[in-house]
């Protein structure tokens, strides 16, 4: 199985490929200042990387009683599903409760969607997201490697979901039965509250089907952000 270094390389390789693809086959024109936006998102990325690395080290200590070696495949699948359900649930809560929305709305305030939007996350959110991940991981008997694998998968899928990238419709429709795709996630960044309050999935799209929060994909969306700009989603 992959080690920690390999999953890190997978994430950086995915980001590099998506950045080149965005520059080559963009789906939309940029609507706001690119250098300013990218500097802001890069700063948030560096901050998240620091917090994430610290959290991962602490988590490795908390989960140290669990096996160090990668466990069996069925256990990896259980951990990935459990952590993704947790990500879905915490995302729903971030939209339902005003206190949590106060931080999450930074992500939704972006009026231009591209790979960098993935990293437009308020660092304070980590204060409740990380404990949730640690508790669920401990309940599942997960080790830090399995959690690292899920985080890598989440980053890759979310980077694709935000990408400003022309993609063929038929494969994306097929992929959307299992994974979050750009067309599905774009509805989540709609200024219309009934669409923004849907498609909460992070990696797998079937949670939205199961819990009745799915908005069907609609191609060629051009308008994203908040309405009003400081508004709540509800
Ligand atoms: Zn959201």
Explain this structure.
The structure is a single chain. About 30% of the residues are buried. The protein contains ten helices and no strands. The chain has one domain. It has helices at about 5-25, 35-60, 75-95, 100-110, 125-140, 145-160, 170-175, 180-190, 195, 205-210. The termini are far apart. With about 230 residues, the protein is mainly α. Bound molecules: zinc ion.
Figure out the total of helices.
Answer: 10
As residue ranges, the low-confidence spans are none
Q: State the distance separating the first and last CA atoms.
A: 43 Å
| Percentage of β-strand residues | under 5%
Oligomer: single chain
> How is the main sheet built?
none
| Rg value | 17 Å
List the bound ligands.
zinc ion
Summarize it:
The protein is mainly alpha-helical and 234 residues long. It contains 10 helices and no strands.
